[in-house]
Amino acid sequence: KNEVEQSPQNLTAQEGEFITINCSYSVGISALHWLQQHPGGGIVSLFMLSSGKKKHGRLIATINIQEKHSSLHITASHPRDSAVYICAVLYSGGGADGLTFGKGTHLIIQP
Amino acid sequence: ETGVTQSPTHLIKTRGQQVTLRCSSQSGHNTVSWYQQALGQGPQFIFQYYREEENGRGNFPPRFSGLQFPNYSSELNVNALELDDSALYLCASSLPGILYGYTFGSGTRLTVV
C-alpha cells in the first residue's frame, strides 16, 4: 500500500505567521482528512476533502486531485495552534481498509 | 451528542499477558476502527467493525482481535503481548462509507514491560 508523505516534519514559527503544511499521496483516493493531535494523544478531525477547498475559521485546506497533493494553511497563527497536524487518506475502494496516515507535522508557534 | 470514549487511558502490562481495550462510539455511529500509534509515528490501521462484523483489517497478526457489540461499542484484545505493542491505541467511530468523517477517542496508552 502506498504511503502518505507530509512536509515539513517539524515547523517552528512566530505568532501571526502564515503556516502551510503539505501532504502528497501516490494513488487515487476517495477522501483526504486533516487531523490535529495534541500532546496526550487525542485526535480532532479538522477537515475531510475529496475536491476543492474548505475553510473553517483561520484554517484552510485545499486538495488537487490531479497532482495528488493537499495543503493545510493556518492564517494569523497563534501559540494555541501548536500541535501535530496529520494528513490521512482513504484509498479508492478502500472504505473498509481504514485510513492511511502520514507521520505528521509537529508545529510550534512561539509568542 | 457524546463523543468517542476509550478506557482505560493508561495501562501497564507485562510481556506475554493479554489486554482488553474498550471504546464507546459516538451516538449514531455504527462503524468503529482501531489504530495503533507508536511513538513518533502516524497511526496504523488495525481493523474495522461494522454491525458487529470485522469488515477490514490492516497488517496485524491474529493475536490482535476485536469485538463490536449491538450498541456499537467495541473492544480490542491483544494476546501474548510483546514489547513492541507499546503504543497509543486509538479508536475512531463513523458512519459507513466514504462520505462521512471520523470521530476519534483520546486513546489508551499501553506500555508493555
Give a structural overview:
The complex is a heterodimer of chains A (111) and B (113). Chain A has 111 residues and is mainly beta. Chain A has strands at residues 5-7, 10-14, 19-24, 29-37, 43-49, 52-56, 59-64, 69-74, 83-91, 100-101, 105-110. In chain A, strands 2, 4, 5, 9, 10 and 11 form a 6-stranded mixed beta sheet that branches. Chain A has a 5-stranded antiparallel beta sheet with strand order 1-3-8-7-6, with no helix packed on it. In chain A, strand 7 and strand 8 form a beta hairpin. Chain A starts with a strand and ends with a strand. In chain A, 33% of the residues are buried. The model of chain A has no long low-confidence stretch (mean pLDDT 91). Chain B has 113 residues and is mainly beta. Chain B is built from no helices and 11 strands. In chain B, the strands form 2 sheets. In chain B, strands 2, 4, 5, 6, 9, 10 and 11 form a 7-stranded mixed beta sheet that branches. Chain B has a 4-stranded antiparallel beta sheet with strand order 1-3-8-7, with no helix packed on it. In chain B, a hairpin with an 8-residue loop joins strand 9 (87-94) and strand 10 (103-104). The radius of gyration of chain B is 13 Å and the shape is globular. The mean pLDDT of chain B is 92.
